[in-house]
Amino acid sequence: CGIFGATGVPDAANFVALGLHALQHRGQEAGGIVSFAPGVGFSSVRRFGYVRDNFTSADVMKQLPGQIACGHVRYSTAGSKGAAIRDVQPLFAEFAMGGCAIAHNGNLTNAEALRAELIDRGSIFQSSSDTECIIHLMARSIQRSIPERMKDALRRVEGAFSVIAMTRTKLIGVRDARGVRPLMLGRLTNGGWCLASETCALDIIGAEFVREVQPGEMVICTADGIESSFPFEAKPKKFCVFEYVYFSRPDSVIGGHSVYETRRRIGVELAKENPVEADLVCPVPDSGTPAAIGFSQESGIPYAMGIIRNQYMGRTFIEPTAEIRNMGVRLKLNVNRALIKGKRVILVDDSVVRGTTSQKIKDMILDAGAAEVHFRIASPPTQWPCFYGVDTPDRENLLAAQMTVEQMRQHLGVNSLAFVSLDGMYRACGEKKRAAEPQFCDACFSGDYPVRPTDVIAAGRVK
Ligand code: 5GP
Ligand code: SF4
Ligand code: MG
C-alpha cells in the first residue's frame, strides 16, 4: 500500500491526492482521504479505483476541507480480498481523546489473534482489515493522549507497519522497530510537513525530502515543528529488499540508495553471474527495465525494446483473480516482432512469482520468431510467501517453491534461465554480501522470517 499525509497547508487534501497519485504503483484497488477542518470536523472519502479518477474533481475535493489530511492507496494483503469499501483506508474512529484516522502500509502478523482477543473483550469490528486492531487497542488504552495511546497499541502488534495517523492537530508517522516498510518525512514549500511512503511522492508536490522516519520511530508533526520518540524495543533493521527489487518506484531514494541505480546494479550482478551469448537484451517492461540496462552495460550486448507495454494498463500481479491476471499479460505487453525475428534474446524481468508472466512472454517471443530465449531474473527465486505486506501466494502457487531452476527452465520452455544470487542482490544494495544477520528482510527468497508469523502458524500455513 501507499500512504501520504500533509499538515500546515491550506487544502491539505489536494496535496494528499497528488502524493497518492505518485504512489499509485503501491496499490490500485482503492484509495481514501480523511481531512479535518475546525467547524466541519473530520471528513472522509473512500473509493475503489485510481486516485486520478476519484480525487481530482472539485466536487469531491471540496468535501475534504482543512489544513490537515492523510490518505491511503490500497493493495489488499490482509483481510478480505477484493471489494469491500469498509476495508478501504484511512480507517477513522472517534474515542475518548477525539477522532483519529489511520493509514497503514504493511501487514500485522498477529492481527487474527488480537482480533479474537478484542472481540472477546467486547470490541465491535467494522472491517476485516488488520489495521482496525490498532484502533481498538487505542480505544482501550488508558493513556491520556492519542500519540500515547497509539504507542500503547503498537507495542501490542507484531509484524510490519508504517503508519500515518492524524488527529485534529497532529500528523503522526510511525515505523515498526525493524523498519520493514518505508516512510519519508518532507517539508512543504510553505513550511508545512508531509509524510509519504516514498520520495517520489514528495517530488510531485515540490516538497523537500527531510529524512526517513527511522525504524522504531514516531514523529509528530504540528504547527510547532517535529517531535520524535522511539517507543519500541530496538530490533535489527529489516527493510524489505523487495522494495528495491520491484515494489518501489525507480525514481525514489530509500536508505540513501536510488532504487533505479540499485536495480541497474542487480542487472550488472546478474550479467556477471550468469553470462550468455545473445543478440539482444530486452526488459520485460516496466519492472525489468533498469536491470536490463545494467545487464546490457555489463555484457556489452545491445539493449532493445523487444516487448512494448501498453501504458494504459496497471500492474498485472495486483489483479486478484487468475483469469484477470492471465488476460492482463496480453492486454499489457506485446512483442516488437520486427526486432525479435531470428534473434537470440535475453529477457530480463524483476521476479518470477507464479510464472504466469514469464510463460506468456516466452510464448509471444517464440511466436514472433526469436531464435533463442534466455530468461534472466533480477531477484533470487521467490520460494516463500510474504507476511509483511506484499501479496505473494502460498508455496503451492510459487513456481520456485515447487520446482528446481532446471525444472522451471523446462516448464517455461526456454533455452536458459538464471536468477541473481542472494549475495549478488545484496552487493547491488551496497553490501559486501548477505551477512549472518541479514541487513534486509529477504524472507520471500530465503525463508528466514525476521518476525514470527503468528497467525499463519496458527492457521497451519507454515511450520
Ligand atoms: P508472475 O507472473 O510470475 O506470477 O509474476 C511476476 C511478475 O509480476 C513480474 O513481472 C513482476 O514485475 C510482478 N510482480 C512480482 N511480484 C509482485 C508483487 O508482489 N506484487 C506485484 N504487484 N507485482 C509483482
Ligand atoms: Fe519484502 Fe519479501 Fe520480506 Fe515480504 S518477505 S517484507 S516482500 S523481503
Ligand atoms: Mg513485471
UniProtKB/TrEMBL annotation:
Q: Which InterPro entries match?
A: GATase_2_dom, Ntn_hydrolases_N, PRTase-like, PRTase_dom, PurF, PurF_N
Q: Which GO terms describe its biological process?
A: 'de novo' IMP biosynthetic process; purine nucleobase biosynthetic process
> What's the protein called, per UniProt?
Amidophosphoribosyltransferase
Q: Which NCBIfam families match?
A: purF
Which positions does UniProt annotate for Mg(2+) binding?
Answer: 287, 349-350
Show the SUPFAM superfamilies listed in the entry: N-terminal nucleophile aminohydrolases (Ntn hydrolases) (SSF56235), PRTase-like (SSF53271)
Return the EC number: 2.4.2.14
Give the gene that encodes this protein: purF
Q: Under the GO molecular function aspect, what terms does this record hold?
A: 4 iron, 4 sulfur cluster binding; amidophosphoribosyltransferase activity; magnesium ion binding
Is Nuclease a UniProt keyword of this protein? Answer: no
Keyword 4Fe-4S, does the record have it? yes
Q: Which domain of life is it from?
A: Bacteria
Q: Which cofactor does it need?
A: [4Fe-4S] cluster; Mg(2+)
Function, in words: Catalyzes the formation of phosphoribosylamine from phosphoribosylpyrophosphate (PRPP) and glutamine.
Question: What family does this belong to?
Answer: In the C-terminal section; belongs to the purine/pyrimidine phosphoribosyltransferase family.
Q: Sorted alphabetically, which Pfam families does this protein's record hold?
A: GATase_7
